[in-house]
Amino acid sequence: MTTHSWRGHRLDRGAGFDPVDFYHTPGARLQGLWLGSFMAAGTDCGPMLARLVGLVSQGRLRSPIDDVLPWTEVGKATERLTGQRVDGKIVLEVR
Asked: Pfam families per the record (predicted)?
């Protein structure tokens, strides 16, 4: 199985991959997960998060990291996320 790492969508750049190429790749599968609605409903997200951790540890899911910030800069991270000025994920370090 070939694994690809594509970046997501940004308003200023569009999708980070050509969907036509993706859908013409044999065996390709695209899945999305948004925990917001589950969390708002009070759903236990533990099993879904465990599945994601498993995929990452197996090397089957890769997500580019845009920045690593200390927890004290959560405001800065939030501003960048809501302003869609992030190319990947922001990791907050809690020490």
From this structure: ADH_zinc_N_2
The burial of 77, by beta-carbon neighbours within 10 Å (0-12 exposed, 13-18 middle, 19 or more buried), is given as buried
Prediction pTM value:
0.47
Q: Which of 25, 23, 18 is nearest to 1 (CA)?
A: 25
Structural domain range at position 46: 33-63
Question: Is residue 7 domain-resident?
Answer: no
Mean pLDDT per segment of 10 residues, for the chain of length 95 residues? 48 62 77 75 87 87 87 93 85 90
Establish if 59 belongs to a structural domain.
yes
- H or E element that contains 90: strand 89-93
Classify residue 40: in a domain, yes or no: yes
DSSP bridge pairs for 31? none
- Nearest to residue 20, comparing CAs of 5, 30, 11? 30
Q: DSSP letters of 34-65?
A: --HHHHHTT---HHHHHHHHHHHHTTS----E
